[in-house]
């Protein structure tokens, strides 16, 4: 599965990359399903054009599956820890040494 981000609109390629059970696995069949179920769409900006379909117009089961996969992807992400700053002990003042030794 590619990086799943929660957006208001998705292209057919994005939907297929999420490996959803609620849609066919062929590009052409997803377009037919979108047309048959009157999914709201808008022209995709950028190179290649095409359409993006509104998440809010998907069937409830498909919306729930996308939300569930998004939630799973958030939980599985590991937080990035801040880098530890190395301090040269030769640059520490005597006052700082006294505090560290206390």
From TrEMBL:
InterPro entries: DNA-bd_dom_put_sf (IPR009061), Mu-type_HTH (IPR003314), WH-like_DNA-bd_sf (IPR036388). One of its GO terms (molecular function) is DNA binding. Transmembrane segments: none annotated. It holds the Pfam family HTH_Tnp_Mu_1. Residues 8-74 form the HTH Mu-type domain. PROSITE patterns: HTH_MU. This is Transposase.
């Amino acid at each position: 599965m590619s990086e799943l981000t929660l957006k208001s609109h998705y292209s057919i390629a994005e939907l297929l990359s999420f490996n959803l059970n609620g849609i066919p696995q062929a590009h052409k069949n997803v377009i037919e399903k979108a047309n048959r179920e009157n999914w709201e769409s808008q022209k995709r900006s950028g190179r290649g054009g095409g359409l993006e379909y509104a998440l809010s117009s998907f069937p409830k089961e498909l919306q729930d599956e996308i939300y569930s996969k998004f939630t799973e992807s958030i939980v599985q992400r590991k937080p990035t820890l801040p880098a530890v700053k190395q301090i040269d002990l030769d640059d520490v003042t005597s006052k700082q040494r006294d505090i560290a030794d206390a």
